[in-house]
């Protein structure tokens, strides 16, 4: 049972970081209060994980099929958590999903059982995340923009409507985040049979929600403030596009990076408005994250297993 | 959500009260100038000067209350910034009005009969420019699609005011009036013209603000 601690810890750290991708802009710019955002985000996360988190968990179970034990699941989650924390501390771009997949591949390299077909699907979706979010953002911008223009709202009605929509979109984004990312926290424990899919969904969702409630305020303020300054409508489009993108991948059963979906959506806003919303450095960071995060997690898991085997602990 | 709506309703109520206070101040200013042109610095003029000042002070207090509410997170940041900058500029209008009546009273200025009619027209052009801006602000809060209707005439009144202002100053300095009187009159005329200049700047800002909400 103690092995689960690493999964819960990883879920918690996911919650502290990824809630910022949903509510960061709104909270940092004071469009929405932190506690309102945190409660809606937590409820959305748990609901998303519970109702639609199974597909991603099954993907991880397939990726690690035949190689899982509780120790390796513990190791994968621990390495992923260390990779995410370490790379964040070093200010290097990082994706929790890619860290978990790197860890699972590290285990697969030892057992000689890497599911390349599943891996190919996962990697293709990583590339598709920012691209998909960008296209969806463009579409949402035009559709929602036309609808709002037709309503002829005054300043007060616009403000009220925008805040309401930001909360609803944030709730949906949190739902999609829970459905998509719950697999990262407790997915590796399903393969070895420690948890059934439904329990993994609930436990993972709850641990991510705990991270949101206890420690996400600082990250929300930093990430929200660090992103390009968006007006309320553009912020709404980004959250909706990110939610739709991540939700699609949740249905497909592929955990993806919400940070990369946000950057893709912000790029889409830039495309529509004819302005540069994301600089080259950020784009380079995404490309670097695709390579560096799974590589670091892969190497760390591989070395950890090597040490454990040499010491006769595994 | 109820809290958002409550705060926004309160900002709206305060804004309407602020606009009414500014309007009362400008109304009293108009009466004060007409009285001054007809009767000079009499008691009636002084009473109207006082009420102009009183309404301007009331508008100042309301503006402060609105700013406090806005800094306490009412409205979205972009609307908050727009409103704060709008209030800052709008507030120049009653300040100018109060300043003019104060100048006329304390400096014991006399407007020679030859210039009174044109001075009256100058005041009317400036008051008209203000009235259109006032309606444009009300439309921004209620029906932003129609702001442009009220913004366009402001430019005409500002141009008319500019012409009158120039002609009056040139004529005054060509007259036999003592140089000190000319300078005093020039200051009052320029201050009066500042009302339509401010109104024009506000009108352009209001036009942009109404367009900003279109996506």
Could you explain the architecture of this structure?
- Chain A is mainly α.
- Chain A contains twelve helices and no strands.
- In chain A, helix 1 packs antiparallel against helix 7 and helix 5 (96-111) packs parallel to helix 12 (280-310).
- The radius of gyration of chain A is 19 Å and the shape is elongated.
- The two termini of chain A are 17 Å apart.
- The model of chain A has no long low-confidence stretch (mean pLDDT 86).
- Chain B is mainly α.
- Chain B has a single domain (2-212), classed as Phosphate transport system protein phou homolog 2, domain 2 (Methane Monooxygenase Hydroxylase, Chain G, domain 1), CATH 1.20.58.220.
- The model of chain B has no long low-confidence stretch (mean pLDDT 93).
- The A-B interface holds A 29-31, 33, 141, 144-146, 148-149, 152-156, 158-160, 162-164, 167, 231-233 and B 1, 4-5, 8-9, 11-12, 73, 75-79, 83, 140-145, 213-215.
Key phrases:
heterodimer, A: 314 residues, mainly alpha, 12 helices, elongated, B: 215 residues, Methane Monooxygenase Hydroxylase, Chain G, domain 1, 7 helices, 0% strand, globular
Helix/strand-derived category of chain B reads: mainly alpha
Q: Which oligomeric form is depicted?
A: heterodimer
How would you sum up the major sheet of chain B? Answer: none
**Count of distinct strands of chain B:** 0
Strand element count of chain A: 0
Q: Which homologous superfamily in CATH is the superfamily of chain B?
A: Phosphate transport system protein phou homolog 2, domain 2
Strand coverage percent of chain A? under 5%
Structural class of chain A: mainly alpha
Fraction of helical residues of chain A: over 70%
> Largest sheet of chain A at a glance?
none
Q: Give the terminus-to-terminus CA distance of chain A.
A: 17 Å
Largest interface: A-B, 25 and 23 residues
Radius of gyration of chain A: 19 Å
Task: Provide the low-confidence segments of chain B as ranges.
Answer: none
């Amino acid at each position: 049972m103690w092995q689960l601690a690493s999964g819960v810890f990883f879920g918690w750290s996911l919650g502290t970081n990824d809630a910022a991708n949903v509510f960061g802009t709104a909270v940092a710019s004071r469009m929405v209060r932190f506690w309102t955002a945190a409660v809606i985000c937590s409820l959305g996360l748990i609901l998303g994980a519970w109702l639609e988190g199974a597909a991603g968990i099954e993907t991880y179970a397939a990726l690690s099929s035949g190689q899982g034990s509780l120790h390796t699941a513990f190791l994968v989650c621990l390495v992923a958590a260390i990779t995410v924390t370490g790379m964040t501390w070093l200010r290097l771009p990082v994706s929790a999903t890619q860290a978990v997949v790197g860890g699972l591949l590290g285990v697969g390299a030892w057992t000689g059982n890497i599911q390349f077909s599943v891996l190919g699907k996962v990697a293709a979706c990583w590339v598709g995340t920012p691209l998909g979010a960008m296209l969806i953002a463009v579409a949402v911008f035009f559709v929602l923009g036309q609808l709002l223009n037709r309503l002829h709202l005054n300043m007060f009605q616009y403000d009220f409507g925008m805040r309401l929509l930001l909360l609803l979109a944030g709730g949906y984004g949190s739902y999609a985040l829970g459905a998509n990312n719950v697999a990262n926290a407790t997915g590796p424990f399903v393969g070895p049979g420690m948890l059934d899919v439904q329990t993994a969904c609930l436990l993972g969702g709850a641990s991510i929600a705990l991270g949101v409630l206890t420690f996400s305020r600082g990250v929300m303020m930093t990430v929200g403030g660090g992103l390009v300054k968006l007006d309320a409508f553009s912020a709404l489009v980004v959250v909706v596009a990110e939610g739709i993108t991540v939700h699609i991948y949740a249905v497909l059963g592929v955990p993806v990076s919400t940070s990369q979906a946000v950057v893709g959506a912000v790029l889409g806003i830039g495309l529509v408005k004819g302005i540069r919303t994301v600089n080259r450095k950020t784009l380079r960071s995404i490309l670097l994250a695709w390579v560096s995060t799974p590589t670091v997690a892969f190497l760390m898991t591989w070395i950890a297993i090597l040490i454990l085997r040499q010491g006769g602990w595994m | 959500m109820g809290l958002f709506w409550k705060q926004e309703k309160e900002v709206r109520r305060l804004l309407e009260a602020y606009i009414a206070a500014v309007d009362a101040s400008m109304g009293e200013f108009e009466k004060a100038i007409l009285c001054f042109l007809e009767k000079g610095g009499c008691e009636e003029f002084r009473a109207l000067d006082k009420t102009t000042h009183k309404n301007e002070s009331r508008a100042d207090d309301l503006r402060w209350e609105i700013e406090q509410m806005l800094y306490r997170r009412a409205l979205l940041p972009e609307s908050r910034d727009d409103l704060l900058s709008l209030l800052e500029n709008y507030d120049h209008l009653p300040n100018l009005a109060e300043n003019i009546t104060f100048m006329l009273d304390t400096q014991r200025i006399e407007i020679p009969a030859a210039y009174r009619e044109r001075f009256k027209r100058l005041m009317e052009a400036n008051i008209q420019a203000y009235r259109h801006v006032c309606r444009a602000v009300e439309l921004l809060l209620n029906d932003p699609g129609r702001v442009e209707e009220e913004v366009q005439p402001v430019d005409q009144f500002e141009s008319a005011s500019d012409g009158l202002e120039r002609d009056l100053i040139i004529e005054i300095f060509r007259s036999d009036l003592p140089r000190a009187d000319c300078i005093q009159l020039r200051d009052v005329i320029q201050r009066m013209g500042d009302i339509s200049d401010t109104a024009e700047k506000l009108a352009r800002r209001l036009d942009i603000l109404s367009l900003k909400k279109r996506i």
